[in-house]
Amino acid sequence: MSILIDDQKFIGLKFHYLEEVGKYVSRFKFIQNQEEYEKNKSNPNLKELNTGWKVLTWAEHNAIYSQCLAYKTNEEGVSISNLDFIKFRDMKLKSCLKTWDFKDEGGRAVPVTAAIIDKLHPDVANELLAGFERATEAAVEPKA
């Protein structure tokens, strides 16, 4: 392994989840470990999503981070920066998620685009990004 990031290489992550279709909206429960998977592997509602992710280089990370800073001046005239965390997460998901094997109801491949990511169920978007961060970020403890 190198300390330099190969920006042409993707990290493959597999997500398993149960889709519970409700009257008005579906709910998604992501499988977090092998024990849960074994317990649910015969459930017809168990789905699998294979994804491909790009790891951000230092330059890319800084570019996203800087676009998410908001500056305010306090009463003393001092400029204070605050990170817009929601925008940062959104930009990170849209910058890093590059491929998936998701298909629509007609069996057609759904491309990974910013507009499609915007249409994701919030629970799904959160879990995809959290899974990527668990797999790649030193600050996040991997689950046993």
**N-to-C span:** 23 Å
For the secondary structure, the number of strands is 6
The count of domains is 1
Number of helices: 5
Shape: globular
Output the radius of gyration: 18 Å
What's the average pLDDT? 92
Q: Which class of secondary structure composition applies to the elements?
A: alpha+beta
The percent range for strand residues is 25-35%
Summarize the amount of helix as a percent range.
25-40%
User: Biggest sheet, open or closed, and with what strands and sense?
Assistant: 4 strands, antiparallel
Q: How do the strands of the widest beta sheet line up side by side?
A: 2-1-3-6
What is the element string, with H for helices and E for strands? EEHEHEEHEHH
**Sequence stretches where pLDDT stays below 50 over 5 or more residues:** none
Written account of the structure:
The strands form two sheets. The chain has a four-stranded antiparallel β-sheet. Strands 4-5 form a two-stranded antiparallel ribbon. The protein has one domain. It is globular, with a radius of gyration of 18 Å. The model has no long low-confidence stretch (mean pLDDT 92). The chain is α+β, with helices and mostly antiparallel strands and 144 residues long. It starts with 9 loop residues before the first strand and ends in an 8-residue tail after the last helix. It is built from five helices and six strands, in the order ββαβαββαβαα. The longest helix has 15 residues.
